[in-house]
Amino acid sequence: MTDTDKILNPGMNARETDETKSVLLVGVGGQGTILASRILSDGLMRAGYDVKMSEIHGMSQRGGSVTTHVKFGSKVYSPIINEREADILVSFEKVEAVRWLSYLKPGGMLVVNDYEIHPLSVLTGEAKYPDGIIELLRNKVPNMLALSASQAAGDLGNVKAQNIVLLGALIKGMKLDDIDWITVLKDIIPPKLYDLNVNAFKAGMAFLA
Amino acid sequence: MKEIVTGNEAIARGAWEAGCHVAAAYPGTPSSEILENVSKYPEIDSEWSTNEKVAVEVAAGASLAGARSMAAMKHVGLNVAADPIFTMSYIGVNGGFVVITADDPGLFSSQNEQDNRWYALHAKLPMLEPSDSQECLDFMKDAFELSERFDVPLLFRVTTRICHSKSIVELGSRTEASIKPYVRNPGKNVMAPASAKKRRYVIEEREVRLRAFSNNCSYNRVEWGMRRKIGIITSGISYQHAREAFHKLDDEVSYLKLGFTYPLPDELILKFASEVETVYVIEENEPYIENFVKQLGISCTGREALPAVDELNSSIIACALLGHSEEGRWEVEATPPPRPPVLCPGCSHRGIFYEMAKYRDIATSSDIGCYTLGVMPPLGVADSVICMGAGVSAGIGFSKVFAMPGAARDDGKPIKKVFGVIGDSTFFHSGVTGLIDAVVNRSNMALCIMDNRTTAMTGHQDNPGTGRTIMGEKTQQIDLKALCVACGVRPDNVQMVDPYDLKQVHAAIRKAYDANEIFVIITTQPCALIKEVMRKREHMYCHVDEKLCVKCKMCLKVGCPAISLRESSAEITRSMCNGCAICAQVCPKNAISQVGELND
Predict the structure, then answer these.
(1) Dihedral sign, CA of B326, A64, A42, B106?
(2) B327 located within any domain
(3) Segment 240-269 of chain B within 8 Å of chain A by CB
(4) Does B187 share its domain with B66?
(5) Does B400 touch chain A (CB under 8 A)?
(6) Can you give the residue range of the structural domain that contains B456?
(7) How many other C-beta atoms are found inside a 10 Å radius of the C-beta of residue B83?
(8) How does B143-173 read in b/e, with b if 16+ C-beta sit within 10 Å?
(9) What residue in B sits closest to A110 (Cα-Cα)?
(10) DSSP state string for B296-364
(11) Which of residues 520-539 of B touch A (CB under 8 A)?
(12) Which CATH number fits the domain that encloses residue B228?
């Protein structure tokens, strides 16, 4: 039995509770949410948690809005995160944070990549990409980190490593940095890209130092 | 050893551990990775079959010959394979034979939301329904033995959230299963009316034995709570959602967790229901278990509280059965623009759709694949998408009617031509039969075979046109043009076009439009996401000359996600662009130029 009366306080040490913790990663197909979630799940399993992760393949991967769910604790049942349940919402693209914000729990933490990818409806002028998203979010969500993961990754040589920058920030935000993530990265990332991704991971952690 | 794996990986592992020898499948989300993972085990002869019916028949033959065999497919694939499956229920097996159906509640990547548990009932096949990756592995490992014990193919039913969720599993080792001796037995294996009628009785006897097994097997288990106030009957992923929804009431709630769901265990359900005060049946989509429970005369709550449509989750259950409210979600005053999936930058389908969209008097019968996305604005090409193969055959029906006197659009204007659109893999799957029909029945439709040299939407699986098997061997590459000609299309009426060259595309579509008999266009550019293609084109991109751009927005009409309109001019995001240059060809001011060259 879990202690169900304990109110979760995201950002606290995840180990202090045996309640299930939920991390929702959202972004645009092709941004690498699945790889980031895979590394996260693997590290959590190695640290002794029960872990479930749910990803979506197929049609939505073609530039559509995508989500990956990671849940961990002493015992996880459903692999799905519902609305108002995510302890942390990590948005790889900023308007996606607005789209999926209802999944963040009251008091939850929001990590947003300050990066825009315009959907076709905006590119063709049919829809408008909203202005001032970061400010709107910041006014609502007290526990929020906006960072330019894409720029940080670009500075390291490849914008595609933005997913690992965000992973670093997320892990620091959840105070899970005592797990040996470097070994996990080594086991999962191809050798050619290992240095880049370790640097990206460290850059992500540094945003919350 | 422990690993965190998807349901699909666990199914593959379970098949390997069970000593499976032969595996066949046609890719389809969410099932595709099952065979991709099976093919990594050299002990199993794996193949991508031409379609699901072929896959089931290959596996059926392998089973009759004495091997443990499996076939995997998505839910709609089982419709294609239904014919052999229904009769294999009569014939039974020699080596264990497992058919995997991967259903898609919530339609993440499908054209319908059918619940394939009804197939087990309809074809009288025993069914296993795992609820996490460990059960995928364990159930699969047992499935072949159960199939052999009851002499029947076994239906293994999973859903998207089982297939594509990872959870922790304990891996085992492979137990070799010997190939069973082959004994010729026409009375059992040749389903002519006389022998089939005899087998019909055997099935009914088998049903009784299976029902008895279902009442006493470890796959169906009761988890008693401290008090027996609420009893929940559930299966598959719904079990996980139910456990989560009711976890604060663990003392009050007992579960009948069903893993062997055809035949359903009547005595077990009656006993369970008699021990609890209230019975809930929690399942996704169809009231498959609930109907049975009600037939047993048990009063229960199910469909009247839970939705029939979309995937289930613990929140829906908690709101419906525990009175939880959905109040208090975060909101900000901004409307996110819709972000549906789109054709990728450099997609080889774009040029065809761009040119087809210019015709106002055509109808387009499209098909299942990335090119379904041609329907999205601004291209907007597709009048119908039904199922694999209908891109050709439904086009035949469309063109029959549009040729009849009085047939017209609702604005009174005639439809002068019908185009079918189908991908290479889909054409091999079930388009070729439609093409033969079109030739023989003298249809004058035009067909575009969007040959991008792969099965793209499901993640780049090989198909009969790629010249490679799933095991990585080189093989005969089926020549699409020769195939069309062999189907009876006149060689002059088969036109190969480079879809990156709009002049060629324009001319070919014009020719097809004007033809009075069946005309086939075959495109020749591979999918832009194939690794080899990405490497070849990595230094290629298109560039907008700001001084020449007049912001006329013509380039936006090709619907490429790499092109946007900025303050001063159109702009192309270099990291997304592969230099296909479709946009450059539509620019009236020659403001867009192609930069870079193909790598060797």
Answers:
(1) positive
(2) no
(3) 240-241, 243-244, 247-248, 250
(4) yes
(5) no
(6) 350-530
(7) 12
(8) bbbbbbebbbbbbbbbbbbbbbbbbbbeeee
(9) B330
(10) TT---BSTTTS-SSS---HHHHHHHHH----------S--PPP----PPTT-TTHHHHHHHTT-SSEEE
(11) none
(12) 3.40.50.920
> So what's the architecture of A19-206 in CATH?
3-Layer(aba) Sandwich (3.40)
Reported ipTM: the value is 0.93
User: Each residue of B195-249: pLDDT tens digit?
Assistant: 999 999 999 999 999 999 999 999 999 999 999 999 999 999 999 999 999 999 9
pLDDT tens, position by position, B354-364:
999 999 999 99
Tell the residue number behind the tokens 């009547």, with chain if given.
Answer: B266
Query: Residue A104 is nearest to which of B166, B248, B330, comparing CB atoms?
Result: B330
User: What percent of chain B shows pLDDT beyond 70?
Assistant: 100
Residue where one domain finishes, among candidates B305, B322, B339: B322
Residue B231: strand pairing partners: B254, B279
Residue B529: closest C-alpha in chain A: A62
Does B270 share its domain with B369?
A: no
Asked if the C-beta of B380 comes within 8 angstroms of chain A's C-beta atoms, the answer is no
In CATH, what number is assigned to the domain containing residue B581?
3.30.70.20
Q: What is the pLDDT of residue A2?
A: 33
Query: Which of A35, A82, A128, A160 to probe by mutation at the B interface, max B CB count within 10 Å?
Result: A82
pTM: 0.95
Tell me how close the Cα of A202 comes to any Cα of chain B, in angstroms.
24
Distance from CA of B440 to the nearest CA of A (A): 35
The number of domains in chain B is 4
CB atoms B243 and A78 under 8 Å: yes
Nearest to A120 among B248, B315, B559 (CB): B559
